């Protein structure tokens, strides 16, 4: 049995380490709110009304304390005195002050990238045509092209993101078997290509592409 | 060594039987001698999912002493390595199984000679169902991403822990304990395992240690079934986190299973979904899930023998 929730310290409540930077605290707080909000599927039926309100209040208090430099210092001091956390001064200080601006900018960028990946994933899941292709035993280069077009991703974008040469990408999509690189390289290319489009499961689809290629090669 | 995995979860259609049959097929395919036991008496249908349309014998033959050895109620299925004890002809509801019969059945199950035994436990939280969960340290709970189903799983998990605590005490001691809990934590707290454990710790420290040992050895897994593209894929992990943070029990998230209309088609045609649609996301999820469950038992063996 773990510690009682009410006895957790603010860092434990938010699931972060005592040297967490500002953006990590904000992120953790947002994630926690997602879980404990009244309309959250996760905690619905788990808590009574009062319990939920109590937790939300506690979360807010933890958040407001930790994002306020002065209050956080005081709170840390208390924890250090109680022997609950080590003196994280040096390490935490540098992480906290040196790069807040950089860190949050980076965070913003990552979030955008993550977001567009999430939309892609959703598109993949919802597109009937793509799902039909993905449940086939064999998947050809032409199929990959269809998937890419369905998702509205430009071939240049794949070249840019995967660093695969344009002529290779075209040969893959046109099933020009003789122009393709050796199998070992090709597999890597196909996986990067699939990853770019958020197609899963990578290995599985790649195997089916290689099977298809083997058959085309034989027929030629 | 035999691995017994009870499978349970929310009411009506969360996918307990589908998971039991699919997991059974994957394990059998890996060459493991696997037995499915349909304990959803009164609503048994596992035989239909593994293509044994007319089970000639079933669990009640053992319960009613028509067949003295449980082993002799086992049926073969068309799948190599996969066996079944059907619950087909049982009019009896498992909740009403008399105590002696229950104990006899539990004992007989734990003596069966199979590598893997999967129990389809049906829905509900009657004491009998809970006791079948507690036959093993493993369990799989399955839920869909719907509040009703999640609610049922929370109740089930709380009930199992509650039942385990209950098993350590005689009626009188437990009553005292309950009174103490209510006095300290208020009305409605007597069925909260976390509150009871605090009271146990104080009044019966040695039992509290044993119980914590038990709880630490539990290998509970959560499966989220019928996930659609709009659903929150992190839901399963979040459910486990809430359980850990607020009940203090560890439940591992074992994975999502995508929703696919073709599951319905496969069930209707009485064919294996995994064989018929092997390249769907859902089939992939089922295979991954099985792998994770097999691997988790090797962890367990390592711990035990190291
Ligand atoms: N991943 C899935 N995708 C789509 N449909 C599913 C999926 N899993 C289960 N189903 C559907 O749900 C139905 C009910 O599943 P199942 O019989 O396994 O539920 P159960 O939990 O055993 O229900 P009961 O409590 O009635 O025994 C299945 O017949 C199937 O049509
Ligand atoms: Mg069922």
In total, the number of domains of chain A comes to 2
H/E order of the elements of chain B? EHEHHEEHEHEHHHHEHEHHH
Helix and strand pattern of chain A: HHHHHHHHHHHH
Poorly predicted runs of 5 or more residues of chain B:
none
Shape of chain A: elongated
Going by helix content, strand content and strand pairing, the class of chain A is: mainly alpha
User: What Rg of chain A do the Cα atoms give?
Assistant: 25 Å
CATH architecture assignment of the largest domain in chain A: Orthogonal Bundle
What is the CATH third-level topology name of chain B?
Rossmann fold
CATH architecture of chain B: 3-Layer(aba) Sandwich
Q: CATH top level of the largest domain in chain A?
A: Mainly Alpha
| CATH homologous superfamily heading of the largest domain in chain A | lambda repressor-like DNA-binding domains
Major sheet of chain A: size, sense and barrel closure? none
Q: Under CATH, the topology of the largest domain in chain A is which?
A: 434 Repressor (Amino-terminal Domain)
What's the count of strands of chain A?
0
Percentage beta strand of chain A? under 5%
Tell me what you see in this structure.
The complex is a heterodimer of chains A (220) and B (306). Chain A is mostly helical and 220 residues long. Chain A has two domains: 86 residues, DnaJ domain (Helix Hairpins, Orthogonal Bundle); 111 residues, lambda repressor-like DNA-binding domains (434 Repressor (Amino-terminal Domain), Orthogonal Bundle), CATH 1.10.260.40. Chain A is built from twelve helices and no strands. Chain A starts with 9 loop residues before the first helix and ends with a helix. Chain B has a single domain, classed as P-loop containing nucleotide triphosphate hydrolases (Rossmann fold, 3-Layer(aba) Sandwich), CATH 3.40.50.300. Chain B has an eight-stranded mixed beta sheet, sandwiched between helices. In chain B, helix 7 crosses helix 8. The longest helix of chain B has 25 residues. Classes of the chains: A mainly alpha (220), B alpha/beta (306). Chains A and B meet through helix 6 of A and helix 6, helix 8 and helix 10 of B. The complex binds adenosine-5'-triphosphate and magnesium ion (MG).
């Amino acid at each position: 049995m773990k510690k009682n929730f009410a006895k957790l310290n603010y860092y434990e409540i938010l699931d972060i380490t005592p040297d967490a930077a500002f953006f990590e605290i904000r992120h953790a707080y947002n994630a926690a709110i997602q879980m404990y909000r009244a309309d959250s599927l996760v905690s619905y039926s788990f808590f009574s009304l009062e319990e939920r309100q109590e937790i939300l209040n506690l979360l807010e208090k933890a958040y407001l304390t930790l994002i306020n430099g002065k209050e956080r210092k005081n709170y840390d001091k208390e924890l250090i005195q109680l022997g609950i956390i080590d003196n994280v001064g040096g390490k935490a200080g540098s992480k906290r002050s040196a790069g807040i601006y950089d860190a949050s900018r980076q965070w913003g960028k990552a979030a955008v990238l993550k977001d567009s990946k999430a939309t892609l994933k959703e598109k993949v899941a919802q597109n009937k045509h793509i799902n039909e292709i993905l449940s086939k035993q064999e998947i050809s280069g032409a199929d990959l092209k269809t998937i890419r077009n369905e998702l509205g991703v430009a071939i240049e974008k794949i070249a840019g993101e995967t660093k695969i040469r344009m002529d290779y990408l075209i040969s893959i999509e046109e099933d020009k078997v003789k122009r393709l690189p050796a199998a070992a390289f090709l597999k890597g290319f196909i996986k990067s290509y699939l990853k770019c489009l958020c197609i899963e499961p990578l290995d599985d689809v790649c195997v089916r592409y290689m099977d298809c290629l083997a058959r085309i090669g034989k027929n030629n | 060594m035999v691995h017994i995995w009870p499978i349970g979860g929310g009411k009506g259609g969360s996918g307990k039987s589908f998971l039991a049959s699919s997991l059974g097929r994957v394990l059998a395919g890996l060459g493991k001698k696997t037995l499915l036991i349909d304990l959803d008496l009164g609503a048994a249908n596992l035989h239909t999912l593994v293509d044994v349309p007319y089970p000639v014998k079933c669990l009640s033959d053992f319960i009613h002493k028509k067949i003295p050895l449980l082993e002799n109620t086992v049926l073969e299925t068309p799948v190599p390595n996969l066996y079944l004890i059907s619950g087909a002809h049982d009019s009896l509801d498992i909740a009403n199984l008399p105590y002696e019969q229950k104990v006899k059945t539990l004992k007989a199950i734990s003596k069966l000679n199979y590598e893997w035994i999967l129990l389809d436990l049906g829905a509900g939280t009657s004491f009998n169902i809970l006791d079948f969960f507690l036959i093993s340290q493993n369990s799989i709970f399955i839920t869909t991403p719907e509040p009703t189903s999640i609610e049922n799983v929370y109740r089930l998990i709380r009930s199992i822990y509650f039942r385990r605590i209950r098993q350590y005490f005689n009626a009188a001691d437990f009553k005292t304990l309950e009174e103490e809990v209510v006095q300290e934590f208020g009305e409605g707290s007597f069925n909260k395992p976390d509150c009871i454990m605090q009271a146990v710790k104080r009044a019966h420290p040695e039992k509290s240690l044993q119980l914590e040992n038990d709880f630490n050895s539990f290998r509970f897994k959560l499966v989220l079934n019928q996930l659609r593209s709009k659903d929150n894929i992190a839901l399963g992990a979040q459910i486990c986190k809430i359980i850990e943070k607020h009940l203090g029990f560890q439940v591992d998230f074992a994975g999502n299973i995508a929703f696919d209309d073709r599951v319905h088609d496969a069930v209707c045609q009485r064919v294996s979904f995994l064989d018929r649609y092997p390249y769907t996301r859902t089939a992939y999820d089922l295979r991954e899930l099985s792998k994770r469950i097999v691997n988790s038992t090797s962890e367990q063996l390592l711990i035990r023998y190291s």
